[in-house]
Design goal:
The protein is α/β, with parallel strands linked by helices. The protein folds into two domains: 72 residues, Winged helix-like DNA-binding domain superfamily/Winged helix DNA-binding domain (Arc Repressor Mutant, subunit A, Orthogonal Bundle), CATH 1.10.10.10; 168 residues, 3-Layer(aba) Sandwich (Rossmann fold). Helices cover 55% and strands 10% of the residues. It contains 13 helices and seven strands. Strands 2-1-3-4-5 form a five-stranded parallel sheet, sandwiched between helices. A two-stranded antiparallel sheet has the order 6-7.
Length: 287
C-alpha cells in the first residue's frame, strides 16, 4: 500500500469495531511508539487481544500486522523530531551492549541493501555518471558527509566534479545555475528529508540534467523526483542517522564508475602519487 498509514486509518474509522477504534485512536496519537510494538504489546497497551490487532491490520488491507508495522516505521522516519528519536531508541537499543546493538543493526542494513539493489538502475547510474560533462553532488545536513566523501573520490577520476555546499557563501542554486542536459545531478538525502535538496533536484530536472537520487526507499520524496533511484537502508540510532549502508552503496558507485571511466586510471593515480610525494601530502611511514 502506498498511502500513509494514518491516512488509511482515518478513512476507515467508521467501519471499526469498538476494539479496533481503541487501536486506531492509540496509533493516531502515539504512532511513534506504536510503530515499534509487537501485536501483543500493542493489544495489551490499549486493552484488546493480540488477535484483534492482527485483524485490524488485515482489515486495513495490510498483509498481516508485521507489514503494517513496517509501513508505520517507514512513515515516521521523516516525522520524528530528535527528542522523539531518543525516546524510541531506548526501546530499540540494548543499553548493556550498545556497540553490539548498533553494529549488528548496521550489518543487517548493508545485507538488505545488497539484496534489494536494483542492478539495472545501478548500471544506468554508472553509465550516466561516466558520460556526463559535469557531475554535481548534493547532500545536506547529515548527508553532507556522504556528498563530500563521494565528491572527493569522484574528483580523482573525473575532471568536472562539483560538490554543492550549503555552507558556502554562494547560494545553492547559484552553484548549479549552469547545469544542463549533458550533466548529472546526484542528490543524497535520508529521513528527515532535506526540502532544499528536493528543490535543487527539481531545478536540475527543469534544466535537462539527469538526476540520480540516493535515498532509503520508494516512498521517499527524492524517489518521486529523480530519474534514477538508488536505495540504501537507513535507520535512526537515537538522535543520529545510520548511514553505513548508504556509504557502502556510494563506495560501489565509485568503484564501478572508476572501472568504466575513459582513460588510464593507473596513469592518473601515478601522476597523483608523484604530486603527493613532491608536496609532502602524506606522512612517510619510515621504520
Amino acid at each position: 500500500m502506498d498511502k500513509d498509514v494514518l491516512a488509511v486509518i482515518s478513512t476507515a474509522t467508521c467501519k471499526f469495531s469498538k476494539g479496533q477504534k481503541k487501536i486506531a485512536g492509540y496509533i493516531m496519537e502515539n504512532y511513534d511508539k506504536a510503530a515499534f510494538m509487537t501485536a501483543g504489546k500493542l493489544g495489551a497497551t490499549v486493552g484488546v487481544s493480540e488477535s484483534t490487532v492482527v485483524r485490524f491490520a488485515s482489515d486495513l488491507g495490510y498483509g498481516g500486522y508485521p507489514v503494517m508495522r513496517k509501513a508505520m516505521q517507514e512513515m515516521i522516519k521523516s516525522r520524528l523530531t530528535s527528542v522523539q528519536r531518543i525516546a524510541v531508541a531506548r526501546d530499540l537499543i540494548t543499553e548493556d551492549n550498545i556497540p553490539a546493538s548498533v553494529l549488528t543493526s548496521d550489518i543487517d542494513k548493508i545485507k538488505h541493501t545488497l539484496q534489494e539493489l536494483d542492478h539495472e538502475s545501478f548500471d544506468r547510474a554508472v553509465d550516466e555518471i561516466v558520460k556526463a560533462e559535469h557531475i554535481y553532488i548534493l547532500g545536506l545536513r547529515s548527508s553532507s558527509a556522504l556528498a563530500n566523501f563521494m565528491g572527493f573520490y569522484m574528483n580523482l577520476i573525473f575532471p568536472n566534479v562539483h560538490v554543492v555546499n550549503e555552507n558556502s557563501s554562494i547560494e545553492i542554486f547559484e552553484q548549479i545555475m549552469r547545469i544542463g542536459k549533458n550533466d548529472v545531478f546526484i542528490a543524497i538525502s535520508f529521513p528527515r528529508y532535506s526540502r532544499r535538496t528536493i528543490k535543487a533536484m527539481q531545478f536540475a530536472l527543469d534544466n535537462g540534467a539527469e538526476v540520480i537520487g540516493i535515498t532509503d526507499n520508494e516512498t521517499s520524496l527524492l524517489a518521486q523526483t529523480a530519474n534514477i533511484k538508488l536505495y540504501a537502508k537507513s535507520d535512526m540510532v537515537s538522535f543520529l542517522d545510520s548511514l553505513v549502508a548508504p556509504l557502502s552503496l556510494i563506495n560501489a558507485l565509485i568503484a564501478a564508475t572508476a572501472s568504466k571511466a575513459n582513460g588510464d586510471l593507473a596513469a592518473k593515480f601515478e601522476r597523483l602519487e608523484n604530486i603527493w610525494e613532491a608536496y609532502d601530502v602524506y606522512e612517510k611511514n619510515i621504520r
